[in-house]
Amino acid sequence: MHLSRGVAALAGVASIALILAGCGQKSGQEKKTITTSTDSELTTVDPSKTTAVGTFNVLNNVDEGLVRLGKDSKVQPGIAKSWTVSKDGKTYTYNLRKGAKWSNGDPVTAQDFVYSWQRTLNPKTASQYGYLFSGIKNADKIQNKKAKVSTLGIKADGKYKLTVNLEQRIPYFNLLMGFPVFFPQDSKTVNKYGNDYGTSAKTQVYNGPFTLTGWTGTNNKWTLKKNTNYWDKKAVKLDDIKFSVQPDPSTSLNLYNQGKLDMSQLSATQAKQMGNKKDMISRKQSSNYYIAVNQKNKVFKNLKIRQAMSMIINRNTLANKVMGGGAIDNNSFVSEGLAVSPKNGTDFTKDTTAPASMTYNPTKAKQLFKEGLQEVGRTSLHFTLLNSDGSDQKQLSEYLQSALQKLPGLTVSLNNIPGRSILSRQADGQFTVTVANWFADFSDPITFLNILTSNNPSNISGWKNSQYDSLIKASNADDGSNANARWDDMVKAQNLALKDQAIIPLYQSGEKWMVNSKVKGIVYNTAGANYNFKEAYVK
């Protein structure tokens, strides 16, 4: 998803920093509140249109799908109380809860899932996440305008039974069902608000543990309040969770040090300064920050120029000294720790092979760049590097500017803009070179690899390779029922993409936190929507 999980990925968005506001009194009872800071704005809470991790984290708590993902992405019953899978793995039958309701009192029914999926896949919606439905009957045809949305392989058999038909076995299908793109939508609400649907808290309804309030669509504060209509409200211990956008991490840390906040995410600089304090924790993220060059531009169609840009970057320095905060250099597009081989348990990043262009080699980089410029009839090159305006991303931009300008004849200007704007610019191809990112939508390598296929809307660089497309297609189809063959397809695909420099991977992000022990029960997963507050509480 972007930060498109990436995509996406919305460049420069950090995950949420959770901060305890403190316990007060309300009507003789203890007020159960967590106050949360984030450096990312909300852009929309329309599950068909958002691509930002911060928004998916909100949707994961104000809405609920067929399943809910618990610790370590374990699949748990959600709106579906049970389900069965056919022997060939192509038919899923979900039995829905009769007591589930929307926050406006409407029942949550099987038709709400049918409507939501058809709406997301409808080309008129222009969802960047329609590709995740690939493998569901007719999903690809619908996206390519070769079939009607009504032919999608999902059917409501009455109000509380849902049947999904697949074109081939999808090994990770129920993991997908825990991702907000597959959550239900109330058609009555969509029709009521039209183009304004999901653009503010009041233009949406909710079926999850919490409801969204206080977000006007442009402000930087909002609250998740306990949903009294939620089917499992007895399990929800918090009254509310308050969010505010704090782009400067020093603000949160100062409040933490004053005892006003109990949990604060640290910047790279702060993490270094804090050393190894006992209340500091690390969290991995299934992510990749990378450079995308617009390959519609003749210059960037040249492989040597792309390789030179990759080779001039010292990723070890970038990850450990510039970014810090748990960032790692894994020489990969797929993140480390996401998935292991069905053959021998080897991490995906260890099974793949990084090309020479992923290794810092300034001498070779300068040679390649000179040759590349000659091949495109240039003696020099100037471009603007587009990135978000978070403090860490500004620091990244400055480092990349310094590194890239070591290539003779290259001049790099910087343009750091709000996250609200960068996704739109990237999706529309309004950039020359940009820092982008992808955060895994679920715990499988394909969540990264899919976005580099030729027609994927999150493939912002415009790179195309028919052999790569064939490998990804095979992994999702013919080899879908053969775990080893599928794994080999994905390994070959990543090797090919990196060798051809489809994108320029930079680092895998991580988080460093200062945490007060009073905050308990928060479920954090490295892939998909990261935070599940359903059973969080204040001790």
TrEMBL record:
Domain Solute-binding protein family: 74-457
Spans traversing the lipid bilayer: none
GO molecular function annotation: peptide transmembrane transporter activity
Alphabetical keyword list: Peptide transport, Protein transport, Signal, Transport
Source species, domain of life: Bacteria
Compartments, as annotated in UniProt: Cell membrane
SUPFAM superfamilies xrefs: Periplasmic binding protein-like II (SSF53850)
BP GO terms, sorted: peptide transport
Record flagged with keyword Transport: yes
CC per GO annotation: ATP-binding cassette (ABC) transporter complex; outer membrane-bounded periplasmic space
Its membrane topology: Lipid-anchor
Pfam family of the protein (one): SBP_bac_5
Family: Belongs to the bacterial solute-binding protein 5 family.
Record's protein name: Oligopeptide ABC transporter substrate binding protein
Organism phylogeny: Bacteria, Bacillati, Bacillota, Bacilli, Lactobacillales
